[in-house]
Amino acid sequence: MPFLLLGGSCSGFRAECAHRHERSQRSSIGKSDRAVGRRRIKWRAPPDLIRFKAERGRILAVEISAESLSFLLADLNGNELDSLRIALTNRKTTPAAICSYIDRALQNLLRKQKKTREQLLVMVVGVPAIANVEAGSVLSVSTLEGWRAVALRAMLNKVVNCLVIIENDTNLAAQGEHYCGAAQTEQNFAFISIGANVGEGIFLGGRIHHGSQWSAGELPTSACLTSCAGSQLSMNSANLKLS
């Protein structure tokens, strides 16, 4: 299992290890001296440096759209290791079919990395629809076949034995901007994605806002927005950008 060290600097943690190790050594050597009457031996082993082993696990991101399935495999530091795209043209797009495509893609990606399924710790799936994150279900995807009230997490749990997170794709994009992108300094902002559908991810108080029915940020398509199809709008109280 990977070990995660939180808080403090590495040098400070190493110094603390050294201090505790030295104290332990003095105590154990003193007991040994009293027991056998030998002269104290001044020997100190260097403390072990605990390192976060990002290579021990894998994270898989999956984006489901009307046109394709996109995959990104990363280590536990978030470093991209491999990616894959499967076109859905002339393919079945039922929930069962999509899960089978994900299963085969995962097998290929892990094989290339010489990793096992047991080393996959998290799978995050973005869907172009309202997603109940707690239940791991998808309300409806009109552009895919048979996607209504789909228990997607339960279906994927038959494929993988790890944490599976189902989330709206625009909400995931908003989180990406907050943690790694243009909104890193913002605690309250809206991320609007304009493409085949219009979606909005809302951040309030430094976290994504889902609403009581998991539909916060769902926007109706309007002539104004669809005229800008393919662009992305990121805005907050002080700034409005079109990229």
Features:
disordered N terminus, disordered C terminus, 28% strand, alpha+beta, 243 residues, five-stranded mixed β-sheet, five-stranded antiparallel β-sheet, globular, 5 helices, Nucleotidyltransferase, domain 5, 3 domains
Description:
With about 240 residues, the chain is of the alpha+beta class. It folds into 3 domains: about 1-50; about 55-170, ATPase, nucleotide binding domain (Nucleotidyltransferase, domain 5, 2-Layer Sandwich), CATH 3.30.420; about 170-240, 2-Layer Sandwich (Nucleotidyltransferase, domain 5), CATH 3.30.420. The chain has helices at about 10-35, 95-115, 150-155, 170-180, 225; strands at about 60-65, 70-75, 80-85, 120-125, 130, 135-140, 150, 165-170, 190-195, 200-205, 205-210, 230-235, 240. The strands form 3 sheets. The chain has a 5-stranded mixed sheet with strand order 3-2-1-4-8. A hairpin with a 2-residue loop joins strand 10 and strand 11. The protein is globular, with a radius of gyration of 25 Å. Mean pLDDT is about 80; it is low at about 1-10, about 30-35 and about 220-243.
